[in-house]
Amino acid sequence: MKPVTVAFVFCALVVLLAPVPASAEQGTPTRPVVRLVGEAGFLGVIDHRIRFSGDDPTFRYDKDGGQDVLFPFARLSAELSWQNRHTIVFLYQPLELETRAPLPSDFTVDGVDFDGDTLVSRYSFPFYRLSYLYRFIETERWVLDGGGSLQIRNATIEFRAEGTKDPGDPGPRGFYRSAGVGPVPLLKLRARHSLPRGFYVETEIDGIYAPISYLNGSDNETVGALLDASLRAGYHVTDSIEAFINVRYLGGGASNTNPTDYSVNWLNTFTVSLGSAVRLGK
């Protein structure tokens, strides 16, 4: 089952099956509280460019790679809070962009030549994120949490040629693959403002900007950045169930112009999604 389908099913089950408490108890929770969140919608690419060699031209996925359409989007997370002060969040975010487009003329990736009439591109960048939040402010209307996250990226980038330009051609040629797994430390901020009649607005931001040479004093000119920033409008359906609409910017990448390990990869996207959350425990 695809992740976006799982998220839709999760949201429906949250609304239909979650228990409705007979009455709301006021005061600080005395037991840990579990919160499950799911959302699903669509993702659009604002700008996406990549380059694996100083001799290669910059490839624009959004212009020449078929990423000028909307893609399914989903994410799932589970939270554990205790003492009304500490929260741990585990999040899974699939990100799979596979497209087909006409093969650009003289297309080359890191010394690999491509020949054919169709370019199949796969950009797979799912990630897992573990976060800790500490509640700094809590009033009748405002809640402010801050902390950090550790994200594990699981990246696969592939290009493959298909088809032939002329009946007499020997066939398509050209395949390139780059893959890797790595940790990404992030700073995290979450704020919520409660509105009358059970409505609320919330923002959540995970991000980092890392010029490596400035951080460790080396001559490594790699620059990396990631920003996951969302704005959410929600409604408390019951004391334990929330429904919301969410808009998000999700982007980042890295640049390393060292000739021995050249790589430039920057992705900027937006998402629009519907979701729900259920709280277990008081």
Task: Describe the overall structure.
The protein is mainly beta and 282 residues long. It has a single domain (3-280), classed as Lipocalin (Beta Barrel). Helices cover 9% and strands 62% of the residues. The chain contains three helices and 15 strands. Strand 1 and strand 2 form a beta hairpin. It is elongated, with a radius of gyration of 22 Å. Mean pLDDT is 87; it is low at 1-27.
Set out the fold topology.
Blueprint: H1 3-17, E1 33-51, E2 59-60, H2 61-64, E3 70-82, E4 86-93, E5 96-102, E6 108-109, E7 112-113, E8 118-124, E9 127-138, E10 142-162, E11 175-194, E12 199-211, H3 212-216, E13 223-236, E14 241-256, E15 263-280
Antiparallel strand pairs: 1-2, 1-3, 1-15, 3-4, 4-9, 5-8, 6-7, 8-10, 9-10, 10-11, 11-12, 12-13, 13-14, 14-15
- Main sheet, how many strands, which sense, barrel? 10 strands, antiparallel, barrel
Share in β-strands:
over 45%
Estimated structural class: mainly beta
Task: Kindly identify the CATH topology.
Answer: Lipocalin
Using DSSP, what is the number of strands?
Answer: 15
The low-pLDDT segments are 1-27
Q: How many structurally independent domains?
A: 1
